[in-house]
Amino acid sequence: MMQSRRFKLKDSGSVCACPKCGNSEIFTAHSDYCAEDCCEVWVVCECGYDPTTESCGSRFEDVWGGVGDGNILTAIDCWNDAITETGKPKEQEGA
Length: 95
Known about the structure:
single chain, alpha+beta, four-stranded antiparallel sheet
């Protein structure tokens, strides 16, 4: 069963701004089963942008899942990593 929780960050300097709308404060955390004994936890911008959608393995995996503060903080780190990755140029094949 998927859980979600909308939240507003007090310190928006700790998160990369959404490349779609520029938001760095209001997000929704999501948690859902990805395997029998594992859940994925991730955050989505208030505009609906999710940089982890196309970045396999970029969501936080946790046995219990949930959208508590600790999991949200880790999911924000994953958001930052995914935003940083999408901003990097792709490596050329055969280079």
